[in-house]
Each structure stands twice: as C-alpha cells, then as structure tokens.
Design brief:
Layout lengths: L10 H17 L8 H14 L3 H14 L19 H32 L14 H6 L10 H12 L6 H16 L3 H17 L7
Length: 208
C-alpha cells in the first residue's frame, strides 16, 4: 500500500495504519485471533484519514469467511472445495470477520461522534459536501490549493450556515462550481501546471 503514497501528505499515516492493520489481521488470525479487534481499530483509524481502508476490511473479512472453508491444498496445489469440517471453518471465519468488522465499524463511529461533539463537522466523518474538493481545487486565485476565503465564505458561509435553506445551499454551491468549471483551455492548462508544480516540484519534502 506504500505505492498509494507518492507524496508526503496524510496518505503516509493512512498507509502506515493500513499496513499495520493488515499485518495484525493476517499474521495473527490463527494463533492469536483474539487480537483481531486491534487490527480492526488500526483499519478504522486508517479509514478516518484516507477512506480506502474499508476495502481492505471487507477483503480481509471475506478471506476469513471463505478461505478456511475451501479446504487444504491437494498434491496438485488445488484447494478442495468440500471437506467434512468445512462448516466449522466457515463458522470460525464468521467469528473472526465479526470481531474484525465490529472493531473497525466501532472505531469509525467513535471517531465520527468525537468530530460531531467537538464541533468540527456536524456530519462527523461523513462527506456532507462532495463538491467541496472540486470547488476548492478549481480556484485559480489559490492555485487550486486550500483557500481560507473559500472556507469562510463557501464552506462555513453557505454550506454550514443554518440560516441558508437546503435548496438555496444547493443552488449557490452549484452556481459556484459551474462558474469555476467555465474556463478557457489556456486557463485550464495554466491551473494544472500550477497544481502540478506545487504538488511535485515546488518543495522537496524528502529532505528533513
């Protein structure tokens, strides 16, 4: 999963937690299966940073369910589909998958609750404003980077403003997005050149 992290951003922490969670789940699944909730917690923390660990949690859970029930490999290296204790293997896999996913989901719910109660985001870890990254990323004035002005006037001034009705919010956000999508080819190329420069060459974060 380190291949997912080509720049020094929050992806590295998410990738590290994802690797650690997978290691716990896969290395300790048989002898120390009672530590699987710890792996689920690590995957939950990873997913809070980068929302791709859910795929790993689902994949590992499915592996717990179906690989034990598939039987041992025969002399040709092919797993036997049927075996007398396949149901036991499936039941054990269900228990492991349940432990893992309960810890994973519980971590996400707890973190989301903490975000809501702290006042950071009333939607918790949920994405209540999918268009925000496009709106912010298409801002020519900030070079496609985070803009405090956008944050104040659009995110808090419109999207999280309780005095603005939902229909008005949607209309105003859509209008802003359409305005920023309406660029000349030259402006698009210039914006992408600035974004690429700032992401890949403007700073060398490999030097500490």
């Amino acid at each position: 999963s380190w291949s997912l992290s080509t720049v020094l951003t929050n992806q590295f922490m998410g990738a590290a937690l994802l690797d650690a969670g997978l290691a716990v789940c896969l290395l300790l699944r048989d002898r120390r299966w009672y530590l699987l909730p710890f792996g689920g917690v690590l995957l939950g923390l990873s997913n809070a940073i980068r929302s791709d660990a859910v795929l790993a949690a689902i994949a590992v859970s499915l592996a717990f369910l179906f690989i034990p029930a598939a039987g041992e490999r025969n002399e040709k290296g092919i797993r036997g589909i049927y075996r007398p204790d396949a149901s036991k293997g499936f039941a054990a896999g269900m228990g492991k998958a349940g432990l893992l996913f309960a810890a994973y989901a519980g971590t996400g719910l707890l973190l989301s609750w903490a975000v809501v109660t702290s006042g950071i985001n009333p939607a918790g870890l949920g994405n209540s404003f999918p268009a925000w990254k496009l709106i912010a990323g298409l801002n020519e004035g900030s070079g496609g980077q985070y803009s405090q002005e956008d944050n104040d006037t659009i995110f808090f001034g419109i999207h999280l403003n309780p005095d603005v009705q939902p229909e008005e919010k949607a209309a105003r956000e859509t209008a802003i997005l359409k305005e920023r999508l309406h660029k000349t080819p030259t402006a698009w190329l210039s914006l992408f050149a600035v974004k690429a420069d700032r992401m890949w060459t403007m700073r060398d974060d490999l030097h500490w």
